[in-house]
Specification:
Elements: H1 6-19, E1 25-31, E2 37-44, H2 51-54, H3 61-65, H4 82-85, E3 90-100, E4 106-114, E5 117-129, E6 134-142
Length: 150
């Protein structure tokens, strides 16, 4: 697994939101009694991500796009590995995404991952949702002050 600083990892999560054409990105870091992060949340109002795109490993769909589909924003990610960097700051992670389907219905998927098994994900969904589109990332079991936490 690649190493990155906690600030780089948070930046990657924010870039993912911007690549999804988010206009609003909210980041929260809950600090515990030991002054170490206990939970990290990044929430956005972007277009979400269909669950089948999450499963692609290696080259990202963003590489061939170059620009976002609706507002023509330059894309940041290209390698499809950013999600794995989150394990540098958290033992367990959850991605929640709501995307619009071609028939103007909404689909929600919740994806759970663990540092102990970084290539394995548990999917809840996809299932119908009322919308709106967007995504959120939540970390649990943050690493604290052991050199990998914030």
């Amino acid at each position: 697994m690649e190493r990155a600083s906690p600030v780089d990892i948070l930046a990657e999560l924010i870039w993912n939101a911007l690549d999804a054409e988010a206009m609003n990105v909210e980041t929260t870091v809950a600090v515990g009694a030991m002054e170490a992060p206990e939970e990290i949340v990044v929430h956005d109002d972007g277009h979400g991500m269909p669950h089948d795109l999450f499963l692609t490993h290696g080259e990202s769909w963003k590489r061939t796009s170059g620009f976002s589909p609706n507002i023509n924003r330059p894309m940041h990610g290209q390698l499809g590995r950013g999600r794995f960097l989150t394990y540098c700051i958290a033992g367990r992670v959850e991605w929640r995404t709501v995307s619009a389907d071609v028939d103007d219905t909404f689909t929600e998927t919740v994806i759970h991952g663990m540092r102990a098994t970084p290539n394995e994900f548990r999917f809840d969904g996809p299932r119908q949702s009322t919308g709106p589109t967007g995504g959120s990332f939540t970390s649990n079991e943050s690493c604290g002050r052991n050199g990998h936490g914030l």
